[in-house]
Design brief:
Four copies of one chain form a homotetramer. With 90 residues, the first copy, chain A, is mainly α. The first copy, chain A, has two domains: 1-54; 56-90. In chain A, 90% of the residues lie in helices and 0% in strands. The first copy, chain A, has three helices and no strands. Chain A has helices spanning 2-15, 17-52, 57-87. In chain A, helix 1 (2-15) runs parallel beside helix 2. The longest helix of chain A has 36 residues, at 17-52. The termini of chain A are far apart. The relative contact order of chain A is 0.04. Chains in contact: A-B, A-C, A-D, B-C, B-D, C-D. Chain D binds a DNA duplex (16 and 16 nucleotides) through residues 40, 44, 47, 57-58, 61. Chains A, B, C, D: Residues 18-89 form the GapR-like DNA-binding domain.
DNA sequence: CGTGCTACAGCATAGC
DNA sequence: GCTATGCTGTAGCACG
């Protein structure tokens, strides 16, 4: 029967190759997310250690943030330079 | 001299052990954040692959979310949702 | 000189009409963004009120989301979710 | 009966007062979200106008972003000053 | 039309 | 327990 054949093909697509593919995708993502979570845990541990050593965690976070932003700021300045050049028709 | 010793100790605290400790903390965190960012990139790549293979990424995300939750929790939210819907005549 | 004329015209463009136009654009956008931010604050306040009244904010958000979507769309995503779940034997 | 009374009160809570409260919350949020969306539309219109006038929208966005960040940067510098004072035991 | 990017909102967590 | 903050996910927008 056509209808059954369609179902069979669809089921196959779902239960066979594509399902394997889907499962693979999901499991790989879940694995990577676990690793990512583990790294977050490691980071958290370091901050705990820092706190125990008497550092101000909030301030350390800010330093890290600033260190990250600096390259961006360089780029921003560069862009602003371009803006002004453009405004001057250079 | 005591004063010099104090200065030495203070300088030491800033330029030596504590400063080194601080630097170590910051660099380790930065390193871990980089790794974490790399993992996020990997995850993104898998979703791109999934999309190319014809899967609906949003739905896959939803499945991963569900798999992460406790079944009881899912049930509870669902129940509450039904209650609210009823209250609104939906 | 042609070059001076160009400079003159360009300077005018920067210091005169175009610059004013640019300033106007920026200030109008900033004003609208402020208003938008204020509305976000109002929304947040309502959710705080809801929480205080014993409602589950997350569920309320979900209801609002559902009400925004086309019923057909909801159905479609749900169907796809079921297909994927079946494929995974969930 | 106490049990019935409880049920009555609970039912009332769902179908009566609380339901009204819930509906009110939802409708107010939806209204505010609409207004917010309208503002986003207005902003978009201004950018369209800017583009038509020959401005580079991306650059304008960046200028707005920078104008927003500047106060934050002042605060960051202040915080850094505190950090260094702290590092020096002042 | 699709794809990548930016920016915004929601969620979770950690600190007070 | 609530508030504040940072991270993640989603959605809208610009570009090819």
């Amino acid at each position: 029967m056509l209808h059954d054949d369609q179902d069979a093909r669809e089921d196959h697509a779902v239960g066979g190759i594509a399902a394997d593919r889907l499962r693979s995708i999901i499991e790989r993502v879940e694995r990577l997310e676990e690793e990512r979570k583990a790294l977050s845990g490691d980071i958290k541990d370091i901050f705990s250690e820092a706190k125990s050593a008497g550092f101000d965690v909030k301030v350390i976070r800010q330093i890290i943030r600033i260190r990250k932003q600096e390259p961006a700021e360089v780029e921003e300045l560069e862009t602003l330079l371009q803006i002004y050049k453009r405004a001057l028709g250079m």
